[in-house]
């Protein structure tokens, strides 16, 4: 089962930075941005995470929590978060349960070889837990600003889930 626009996102729990776990249900009442990235400490993922870090105050003002997800182990996530001074939670999804829920594992090509990997994707969940927006095949440049605008509009009531 995969998530659908306008529909409730099923609850999940995953290992999180800070020696914790995070369940989606814990965030009910706040909007949630979940962004999936291929690999910690790689250039595009570092840029994207930095863009979210640098706009966190604006996301907070829009009642929106930021959560980053990759298949990296928790140690790699902790190192990535510390090195880049990320001010939001990263999840380790080694078993790919969260990736499967959001259908972000895709066949990719690298140096002519095919492999399964995370397709850079972002999802905006409204305060009631419904999927409001999704961005797939994300290009990093300018992406976080677009997500922030959507989060602000949703918070202000200018859009509804699925628009």
Automatic annotation (TrEMBL):
Q: What is this protein called?
A: thioredoxin-dependent peroxiredoxin
Please name the source species: Halomonas salina
Q: What is its EC number?
A: 1.11.1.24
> Which family does the similarity line name?
Belongs to the peroxiredoxin family. BCP/PrxQ subfamily.
Which InterPro entries does the entry mention?
Answer: AhpC/TSA, Peroxiredoxin_AhpC-typ, Peroxiredoxin_BCP/PrxQ, Thioredoxin-like_sf, Thioredoxin_domain
Keyword list, A-Z: Antioxidant, Disulfide bond, Oxidoreductase, Peroxidase, Redox-active center
For the protein in the UniProt heading, the enzyme class is oxidoreductase
The cross-references to Gene3D superfamilies, in alphabetical order and at most eight, read: Glutaredoxin
Q: Name one Pfam family in it.
A: AhpC-TSA
Q: Which PROSITE patterns match?
A: THIOREDOXIN_2
């Amino acid at each position: 089962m995969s998530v659908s626009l306008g529909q409730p996102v099923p609850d999940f729990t995953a290992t999180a930075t800070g020696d914790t776990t995070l369940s989606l249900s814990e965030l009910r009442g706040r909007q949630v941005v979940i962004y999936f990235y291929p690999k910690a400490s790689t250039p595009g993922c570092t840029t994207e995470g930095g863009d979210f870090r640098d706009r966190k105050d604006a996301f907070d003002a829009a009642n929106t929590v930021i959560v980053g997800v990759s298949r990296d182990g928790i140690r790699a996530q902790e190192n990535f978060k510390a090195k880049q001074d990320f001010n939001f939670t990263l999840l380790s999804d080694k078993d790919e349960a969260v990736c499967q829920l959001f259908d972000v594992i895709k066949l990719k090509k690298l140096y002519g070889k095919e492999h399964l990997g995370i397709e850079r994707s972002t999802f905006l969940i409204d305060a009631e837990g419904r999927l409001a927006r999704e961005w797939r095949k994300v290009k990093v440049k300018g992406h976080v600003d677009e997500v922030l605008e959507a989060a602000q509009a949703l918070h202000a009531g200018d859009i509804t889930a699925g628009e």
